[in-house]
Amino acid sequence: MDLLIDTDVAIDVCAGLEPHAQSGALAIELARHRGARLWLYCGSAQAMEYGLYLHLLRANEQAPSPLPRPAVLARARRLLAEFAQGMQWLAALAGEGPVFDAADPEAEQLVRALGRFAPGSIQVLTHDRALLEQHPGQAITPEAWCQRAAAPPPIAFADLAAQQDAIRAPLEQGIHRVLHHGQYIMGPEVKALEDALAARTGARHCITVASGTEALLIALMALGVGPGDEVITSPFTFAATAETIALLGAVPVFVDVQADTANIDPAAVEAAIGPRTRAIMPVSLYGQPADMDEIGAIAHAAGGLPVVEDAAQSFGARYRGRASGQLSRVGCTSFFPSKPLGCYGDGGALFTSDDALAQALREIRVHGQPQRYLHTRVGVGGRMDTLQCAVVLAKLGRFDAELQAREAAAQRYHRLLEPWAGRLQRPVVRADRSSAWAQYTVQLADREAVAQRLRAAGVPTTVHYPLPLHQQPAYAGRCRVAGPLARAEALAQRVLSLPMHADLDAATQARVAQALGEALG
């Protein structure tokens, strides 16, 4: 439960006004401990400043050596700045302005602002009796909050709210900039993001698209994959990988994966190449690039087969000094919200240093048009909209720090789970690469029972993935299985993903590890 701080609570705490200052400060401290977000309403800033100034001014008048009024105002501003540290500022929106017919316009603005949040997810922290009586479900006193806050805070599997808090200012600025210029399709933020991502990966070209799935589809279309062709890929991945192959009338050829990394096995790829093989699509699973150089060498020896890296989970990872997404002729990534670099909807990108291929990718994403109303290819409506590009641009400034935080969280998990190393297998990252840690996925026996015990202990988990693609009903008769897939099938029975995100703190990880140890018995 988040809290929107009313002016009276802010003034009480800053001025030390009892009987409410101590309870207000305690409620705020408990809320922070529980991981709740604390909000201040931008429209109340002037009222907070003026109210606190008046209180300080009255106290100053009774002092033996009163300060000049400008010094009192400066103190009020300093106290409010300290009070607001770590809190989120909620911008005032147009619909919250016309409140002058309300008995208390300021309180009415706060209640209206709650309408932006999910029902039951936020309350106004206040001592205003009228507000508490008129809106009992939306307002709460500090004393009542303290009584309710005894339970440990919930654990988030992927904490997008904490990430949003850290980037709120550039995020809101970027979104409002788009709303004001109105170029919702192919606006200036699209090129700005493509330039930034290309520079980051070292690719000559970045082409943003509507989703990670669309990126894979457009890549295969640009490479000429069509009916009857075969594309070698992993059965242990999300369905989008094989789905795009099947949508073009081609045949997904599933080969086995490595037991430790869950990435595609290069030896199995080499054995599966046949006369109809048109491309190879390795998946960089869980954030770690596959053995791209080995796969590239196999593809070259087979006549220069194109390799398409499905880097939906690994953007930000490195492989032998190079960026994931730029490890083959064309790389594809996803900006789905839960990815290491995600937007607030769907989005994706393609990377290549092949000029001719880049031109084909750009044309296909806009219905096969090199210019408006001239269609030289069959294409799709595959553009990433400007608003989503603005979101990713806002996140890019924090992305390097987030990658470091994910790596630190992964290393903490490694250490915390060491006592149970005989009961579970921790993730393995090869020495010549890094992981973006899209997931932290362990392997263990009796997975379902352990997951159920963790859920009962308040620890969310998920399974990536419970059924290999060659066993999915949609691909019966539409795929080719090249050799035994025993490792993929075994992984599907053993993998369990634990909470993982850049804002995961050590105390929460200790709770997760302790609960996992108890669940293992």
Number of strands: 18
Average pLDDT, rounded to a whole number, is 95
Based on the structure given, which CATH architecture of the largest domain is correct?
A: 3-Layer(aba) Sandwich
Shape descriptor: globular
Radius of gyration: 27 Å
Give the distance, in angstroms, between the N- and C-terminal Cα atoms: 33 Å
> What portion of residues belong to β-strands?
5-15%
Task: Output the CATH homologous superfamily of the largest domain.
Answer: Type I PLP-dependent aspartate aminotransferase-like (Major domain)
Task: Decide which structural class fits the backbone.
Answer: alpha/beta
User: Low-confidence runs (pLDDT<50, min 5 residues)?
Assistant: none
With strands numbered from the N-terminus, the spatial order across the biggest sheet is 3-2-1-4-5
Can you tell me the number of structural domains? 3
